[in-house]
Design brief:
It contains 15 helices and 23 strands. By secondary structure, it is of the alpha+beta class. It binds adenosine-5'-triphosphate.
Length: about 450
């Protein structure tokens, strides 16, 4: 399969248990996705890799787990209630809704960048250039209007507008409102960082491209609090740090690029995305933002709590600047799926599909295959039991050994262990490498170390 499209990937993921359509038996809920057994493991391993790189291996870095539902004042202070919206435009004829800026970009094949246009400029551009609805071909649009990306819900038992609360559209505010708590309880000095992995919700105008743009997604966020003036250096540093993280997990440099924002979000002094080349074009995986002291100053103003930091060496008082590195878990997983997928012609004329995940990301690290079910199951199960104390281990005793290798390749399992008479007689197993398909003989008590040494990050 030379050109794996997003649809091919969605079908592949569904067929093998990586990702399913959300609420599928009820015809789904558009742009919601459920991770299956393989996808969930992959996603968890991706998050663990991030935790390792961003929390475990960094000094002064602390992970928290804040509530999704927050006091609505948080979102007034952050500016989201008034400023977090997309420019929407509807086709009056077929009722299809578009995000006006992406509609212009797509219709002009990227020759025009609507990112910096005002609503009025977008509207004029669409009218003056006679852009047509890509769905029905008519040229009959509404004005460009604001479309809030915030999902509202109600607290309590009555649908009362006064009790409206929001599903968080980003994790960041959970980190900011806990800045004083974390600073105090960890007795940290600046610069220090708060990390968080969690769900965010956005009522996107045009969700789509499988898990690339959804209304519910997960983010891995890393907020570094620093002295004003140290922010730009940290901002540059974290752009590279995040890029290296993706490359170390197997995304090749030639498919990654930085995209500096021309039009900055209301809170940012500088912003840069890391984009990956998906089949539908480059798409953002990560955003690095210099958010200045905007967030903490606003929270100080709205909560009346002092957000100042006193430098213990100089006694200088200031509100820290924040440099944010935010990665979309689902988009990262999607890029890793595309990169891992290989279709290979074998010597015997057959083809195999294999997911060449970084071994740390692989849903299962090793699979145990008894050659003959009746004869080898007992010892195979005892090996399986031992290995599963250390790694996610799978067990497969149905079908020919060739078919079982294929299943293990599709799951991206780095090692397959075949149990046969030699295992009973000599205490050895045959270990097959997923990528090279080469086989070696190992003693039973060597397996744990052999596999363990090769699945680290
Ligand atoms: P975009 O420009 O694509 O809408 P964004 O710039 O609004 O994204 P951020 O607010 O910087 O995104 O969020 C941080 C990360 O969260 C993004 O880099 C992306 O990986 C992820 N993300 C944002 N929106 C979505 C979404 N609707 N679905 C899936 N992931 C998302």
């Amino acid at each position: 399969m030379k050109n794996l499209t997003i649809e091919n990937m969605a079908n592949f993921c569904k067929q093998y248990g990586f990702i399913y359509q959300g609420s599928e038996i009820y015809n789904g809920l558009a742009n919601t996705w459920d991770y299956g057994p393989l996808g969930t493991r992959l996603k968890n391993n991706f998050k663990d890799a991030w935790r390792k790189r961003f929390v475990q291996e960094r000094p002064n870095s602390y992970e928290i787990d804040a509530s999704i539902l927050m006091n609505p004042k948080v979102w007034e202070a952050s500016g989201h209630v008034t400023s977090f919206y997309d420019p929407k435009i509807d086709c009056k004829h077929c009722k299809t809704r578009f995000r006006a800026d992406t509609f212009i970009n797509a219709t002009t094949n990227g020759k025009v960048n609507a990112e910096t246009m005002t609503f009025e400029e977008m509207q004029n551009f669409i009218r003056d250039n006679h852009l047509k609805c890509p769905v029905c071909g008519h040229e009959d649009f509404t004005d460009v209007r604001k479309f809030s990306q915030m999902f509202e819900t109600y607290r309590g038992t009555v649908d009362d507008k006064k009790t409206v609360i929001y599903l968080r559209p980003e994790n960041a505010q959970g980190e900011y409102v806990n800045y004083l708590n974390v600073l105090r309880t960890t007795r940290s000095k600046l610069p220090f960082s708060i990390a968080q992995v969690g769900k965010a919700f956005r009522n996107e105008v045009t969700p789509g491209n499988f898990t690339f743009r959804t209304i519910e997604f997960e983010q891995m966020e890393f907020q570094t609090f620093c002295e004003p003036g140290k922010d730009i250096e940290l901002y540059e540093y974290f752009k590279e740090y995040a890029k290296k993280f993706f490359m170390d997990l197997g995304l090749p440099e030639e498919k990654l690029r930085f995209h500096n924002h021309e039009k900055l979000a209301f809170y940012a002094k500088a912003a840069c995305d890391i984009e990956y080349k998906f089949p539908f074009g480059f798409g953002e995986l990560n955003g690095t933002h210099d958010r200045t002291d905007y967030d903490l100053s606003r929270h100080q103003q709205y909560s009346k709590q002092k957000m100042e930091y006193v430098d213990p060496m100089t006694n200088k008082k200031f509100i820290p600047y924040i440099v944010e590195s935010s990665i979309g878990v689902d988009r990262g997983v999607l890029a890793l799926l595309f990169e891992a997928y290989h279709e290979e012609k074998l010597g015997d004329g057959t083809t195999r599909e294999v997911m060449k995940f970084h071994p740390y990301l692989a849903p299962y690290k090793v699979t145990v295959l008894p050659l003959v079910k009746k004869r080898h199951s007992e010892i195979a199960l005892s090996i399986y039991k031992k290995l599963s104390k250390y790694f996610m281990t799978s067990y497969d005793d149905s079908g020919s050994i060739g078919k079982r290798y294929r299943r293990s390749d599709i799951a991206g399992t780095p090692f397959a262990i075949t149990i046969d008479d030699n295992t009973i007689n000599n205490k050895t197993v045959t270990l097959r490498d997923r990528d090279t398909m080469r086989q070696i003989i190992l003693n039973i008590d060597e397996i744990t170390t052999f596999v363990g040494d090769r699945v680290t990050f």
